[in-house]
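To fix ideas, we quote verbatim one protein's residues and fold tokens.
>
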Amino acid sequence: MKLLNAEDVTLFPVSSRSALEAKLSYSKNSDGKHLREAMFSDPRWRSSNFCELEDYLLSFLDSSTENGKERVRLKLETPIGIADRLLTSCQRLVKLEYEKAVEDLTSIKDLVYGANNYAIKLKSDSNSWQNQISSLVGVSNTTSYFFYLHKCTPSFTKI
């Protein structure tokens, strides 16, 4: 057991399949009060050696002794502590992502506002240019018409 760095290691050779079959057959047919005593008569349960493992786990996590209370506390606090740190980290990441999203949204709103203002300015400039061009075309038409009348129609002179 040098590999595990422990000298006093307890191994429990068990047959979990046999234990499960025995437990399932008795849990369906029993009221639960005398389940443990009834299972001892089952050869599957006795051959599984699962009872010794259960007894060891129950004694190891027994909360009636001070050591047992400490073990239960450690066994329960460790996953809760890990979950709490994980949740805190996730909350921090979500908060940072939220702040970035708010900044991005503000930037997008500014861009949309600027694009809308630019579109209004372009429309205004376009209308101004259209009016100027229409005016020039009108003046050009009038001038052309008078030119045509002046050059293309015979003039009557008195003799």
